[in-house]
User: Which sequence fits this backbone?
């Protein structure tokens, strides 16, 4: 089984905020493959959806613990379902990647991201696949990053979101079916050429 986890904060207050792009990607994937909302269930402090992608079992996950405690929920799911680290894929927002770009990495530190920090702490490992969805840094140097990530995407960004989420879903599919190495080569090279 693949565990595909989108990071974000629960509740209507955080809908369409930059920090919730991981949730958006998971929702976009579920909609794209035709999984209805009724299929969602609550387990281990998460909203989850199970489906078979071709013949591969996949569990989509939106932790409901708030970002800073994401590792609690993901750790519980991994232990209960005996998911290996090489079948965990995390989707999250990244300040250091330009808006409109995605980056795939197979392991690294938390990069100052509280959701990743919690995951690494609870899983005891950095060896898991991740898709960083670029949100860029604040235009105004005085704006705190913590405030910026909790703001909603502006109008221009919202118009491009569907396209970015579509690419993110393609990257998820590539990780699962082509393998992480090929997926990284394909999507990181593609993004580099577009910058």
Assistant:
């Amino acid at each position: 089984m693949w565990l595909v986890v989108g990071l974000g904060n629960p509740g209507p207050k955080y809908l369409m905020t930059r920090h919730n792009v991981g949730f958006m990607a998971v929702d976009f994937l579920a909609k794209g493959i035709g999984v209805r909302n009724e299929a969602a269930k609550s387990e281990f402090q998460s909203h989850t959806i199970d489906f078979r992608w071709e013949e591969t079992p996949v569990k989509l996950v939106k932790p409901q613990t708030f970002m800073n405690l994401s590792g609690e929920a993901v750790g519980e799911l991994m232990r209960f379902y005996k998911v290996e680290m090489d079948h965990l894929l995390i989707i999250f927002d990244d300040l250091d990647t330009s808006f409109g770009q995605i980056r795939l990495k197979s392991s690294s530190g938390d990069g100052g991201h509280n959701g990743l920090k919690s995951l690494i702490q609870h899983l005891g490992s950095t060896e898991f696949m991740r898709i960083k969805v670029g949100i860029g840094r604040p235009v105004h140097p005085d704006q705190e990053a913590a405030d910026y990530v909790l703001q909603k995407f502006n109008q221009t960004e919202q118009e491009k979101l569907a396209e970015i989420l579509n690419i993110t879903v393609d990257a998820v599919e590539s990780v699962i079916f082509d393998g992480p190495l090929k997926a990284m080569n394909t999507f990181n090279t593609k993004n580099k050429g577009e910058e």
